[in-house]
User: Fold this.
Amino acid sequence: MTTTREVSVIGLGSMGAVLAHTLVRNGYRVTVWNRTRAKAEPLIKEGAAFTPDIVTAINASPVIIICVTDYQVTRNILEPENVASSLAGRTLVQLSTGTPKDARDAEAWIRGIGADYLDGAILATPSQMGMPDTPIFLSGSGTAYQKSEQILKVLGGNLMYMGEAVGSASAWDIAALSSLFGLMIGFFHGARVIEEEGLRVDALGSMIAGIAPVLGQMVKNTSDDIQKEDYSEPQSTLEICALSFELMIRQSREAGINAEIPEFALKLFSKALNAGYGNERLGALIKTLRAGS
Assistant:
């Protein structure tokens, strides 16, 4: 781990501003750059140094954190020749939103101009930054990780370095978001069921939070089945699981509520049933997804 107390933060949107604030609060000498000075004013009052010149911001620190809308915006900011050349010999940590391909393209470009590159994905909201359990996925250059690890631990205590394959961080991020929002979409339908029965939606949320370890274990068991490609001897077959969605659809019609979510899910399960996977474990559904549309 390399120790440095200087860091530059490029981009002061809702997340970038919080990153800079967290670093200043923890005693780092932070230089910030943003297209407009107004967003930097609160940070200047806290002790950050603002510069309107991107090259000056880069030259101020050995580690540069960029957190903007996406990788194309990163490229637009850093691509001018005088800017790109100033990155040589420095470490760029990308915390913008993108795909594994975005990460691979960015790494090739950044390495080509002589800088070290680390790709990251923050799995948290701005208000959750700087906590011991704040998760940040990271991947790419091992030396870049070592140079920036201490800085990044200030931003999120739960750093997960996924290795040298630079696309790994964004892949893990997208997979985690898919899992999260898949749960939330199901919850929204459940909330409508609860509302129509005159029950409390917050009680449903509390119940889900209480059984979260059980749900997590179900996901873990299914992931093991998929990794081993073993869908035999099911405790509950894929066909039986599909009946749950038929039940949800019938209840929706009886209650007069929107049934789009269970109808969509049943279509996926029906494909698996038609493919002959009905007597296998739930994880066999992935075989249908692998086959495409």
The mean pLDDT is 96.
